[in-house]
Amino acid sequence: MEDFTGKYSIIANALSRRFGNFTAVDKVSFKVKEGEIFGLLGPNGAGKTTTISMLSTIIGITSGSATINGKDVGKEKDAVRKLIGIVFQDPSLDDELTGMENLDFHARLYGVKGKEKKDAIAKVLKLVELEDKANKQVKTYSGGMKRRLEIARGFIHNPKVLFLDEPTIGLDPQTRRKIWDYVQKLNKETKLTIMLTTHYIEEADELCSRVAIIDHGRIIKLDTPERLKDSLGGDIIRIGSDAPGRLAELIRKGKFTVSVKERGDSIEVTTKNGSEAIPKIIGIAQKAGIEVAYTTLKRPTLEDVFISLTGKEIREEGASDTDQLKRNFRFRGRR
Amino acid sequence: MANFLETIYTVWLRETIRFLKSKSRIVGSGGQPFIWLAIAGVGFSSAFVLSGGVSYLTFMAPGIIGMTLLFSSIFSGVNVIWDRQFGFLKEMLIAPVSRVGIVLGKIAGSATVSLITAVVILVVEVIFNILPFSDLSVIGLMEAVAFMLLIPCAFVSIGLIIASTVDNVEGFQVIINFLVMPLFFLSGALFPLTNAPEWMKFVSAIDPLRYGVDGMRGALIGVSAYPVYMDLLVVLASAVVLVLIADFAFNRIEGK
Ligand SMILES: Nc1ncnc2c1ncn2[C@@H]1O[C@H](COP(=O)(O)OP(=O)(O)OP(=O)(O)O)[C@@H](O)[C@H]1O
Ligand SMILES: [Mg+2]
Predict the structure, then answer these.
(1) Which of A142, B78, B216, B252 could form a disulfide with B62 if both were Cys (CB 3.0 to 4.6 A apart)?
(2) B88 CB within 8 Å of a chain A CB
(3) In CATH, what number is assigned to the domain containing residue A246?
(4) Residue B11: closest CA among chain A residues belongs to which residue?
């Protein structure tokens, strides 16, 4: 870890949580600096929500410890609750109340009163563009509107540390972009510390100053998105060919690559400078009489980092679909 | 952070807003007692002959108020389960406020709704002369209102205790239905227990509603087995104990 002399907002120390015999979070340790946006990136069931739930005092800790601005989440629950705001992954609105009444309830419980309350509510409603819907019952909102209202609610009481559990799930790209912009703005202007979980690669990449990659309840790597991607050793070239095994062997002999892997009938080459490597590879193939069907070149993403660490995909699309289903199911399950 | 009273008020306010928005709940909680009054009152009145010149309908009138208080309050615990399924419970549990405040707010909210319904029924009973106006006194009415406040506090608490330990609506309803019938029939709301078998009298002695109904009878029609202040003390004591247990049970809920 690099030298850092400032304050840490969140410190987790071998934090664990078991449900029966199943260990959902397994001795997780990390430190979140004051004013940074820290991401937990991982697939479904990795333990992201469980981690956030422990840090925000919603569920108990099985072992280990954690502090928020120096307050112990196990022993000083009220002090911690005063400091934090949270946007839950699952819906948490009162559908029978109007949007305004939901925000008002929250403001009252956090002791935001009078003109301050009015201004705060007006401000967050404007941010998520729900001003004209504010006096309608929440059950008449679309899924995206409900999400925006929940996000707005999390900001009302000016928390010092904000937890966002899959903040933009189920939102359209424009709204998602807008929320990202706002989160960044808020973070810059008020030095708010933000911890978010996501399985959207771009969300982690775009927003987070540092990302912890989590799988099976363990943090397997923690660094800035740039360094995580650099850790792969450069660009990734994919080559489709009729003789992948032989071609891979020949490329390895060329010694200009970081790694060469066969993946079915294609080859994945990692190299410092992708655009220069492609002509070399095609030259090698031609000389050996091997046909190249296609080549693709890309900068590695955090997805690739995840694949290289765990051998599997985060499965962004599939995951968001099931999550959407989960939410819809819950919406319907009421009544 | 909201102080204790603000917490109670905020939670109370939400419960009240929800009730006022739900027309079916308003009609249901107001309509049910009248159906009982009509069917049971007319049907049973020939079956019982009461001493002291009190007509059966008059005897039953405070019982019906007690029934309304019991039903509307004990079932309101289901709101906690809905809140959990909606996820709204998390919003409350994560707030930096005292959980006692939340529990008392919930109890106050449901008790208010029960109290209002009970007062409406009382007024209607007076209008139809089921409760003779000549029997009423200011003191009696004040005593009745005290019962109407304390009885729901006791039964909302029972609902909360069950709701804190059961996490699905079906389970909650099964348990409550199992509890509510004995509580109701053994309270003496519908018929006097003077000729009941000993075991029934014994079970009835631990039913808080029995003292509530008896007290309201004393307060409203001047007929009761125990002195009204005794009834009031018993109901007060059971309410306090049950509120404390409800608070304990609610505190054990995790937000998930
Ligand atoms: N209350 C619970 N009881 C039993 N098991 C649980 C409970 N909550 C979570 N788990 C299990 O713990 C593991 C981690 O769950 P968690 O919700 O933290 O995952 P996640 O990373 O947030 O996943 P997702 O991306 O789907 O939200 C999962 O295997 C889940 O089944
Ligand atoms: Mg989750």
Answers:
(1) B216
(2) yes
(3) 3.30.70.260
(4) A105
